[in-house]
């Protein structure tokens, strides 16, 4: 998951050296130049609308005019970009520069409109990490497959709990929102909901309240990014399966077609109750998620068969904690189980990718 980056420039200002992060900055060819000294007295409105890195940090009061001037001097003397110079001087962290770079590209960063994103969500907090790149790869596969569709509806399911489905649902919804897809993330796990924790939304009304007719959708939707809305699970009802079975869920999903480009639905573990089967049937298609050293062949087959019998189109599988270089699970202790799981997925899937597969 997320790992902290130690800033090698915190205590001194050495000459520029090879650094993967700085290489990434150079490859992006971002014109991240600081404001010239004259712009330090620019009107507030001009600063607010500026996309230059120095102006963004100045407007947010993260840097003072004096700090920006010092960064510009270092930038000029060493032939660096603004972000590189600021990192070397210890005035900004890599994470702060990454977030502003994301802003310059119109790419949603780690700051939410409401609440705070869980630090493990790499797609927000570590946008240049391998994990974030794999999530974007998954997003691309889905968008290519659904290219002719006006509305993407996708349930995320797993056989058992703690297999990463809720994390994947949140990450995929974020990834879709980052490319301008107006996305709705629904937490339909009414027994053990998670999405309110990933976005620090607290206890509030949500899906269960809407399906029970106690409130409207608009009253409980939470906009966490310009293009991402979250519908939390809401209070846990005593009869979740009956509530999910009601025609209200199908009507809600149908109404979303006119308001959103994509809808990602988190579900309860498939082997624990029939909720996932009921929800996925109404959504129509799903991703099946497994976890290293946890998912067994038996539960995988059972979950797959149950979804197929319910008329759910399993468009792909995701194997969390997958060793892409060796094309096998990372943990030696689960080697034989992992091999059986790999072979099972090869039989179930028409096409296979490292760590995930999306059927075209």
From TrEMBL:
It comes from the Bacteria. GO terms for molecular function: ATP binding. Gene3D superfamilies: P-loop containing nucleotide triphosphate hydrolases. InterPro entries: Bact_polysacc_biosynth/exp (IPR050445), CobQ/CobB/MinD/ParA_Nub-bd_dom (IPR002586), P-loop_NTPase (IPR027417), T2SS_E_N_sf (IPR037257), Wzc-like_C (IPR005702). Residues 156-329 form the CobQ/CobB/MinD/ParA nucleotide binding domain. Keywords: ATP-binding, Nucleotide-binding. This is Capsular biosynthesis protein. The lineage of its organism: Bacteria, Pseudomonadati, Pseudomonadota, Betaproteobacteria, Burkholderiales.
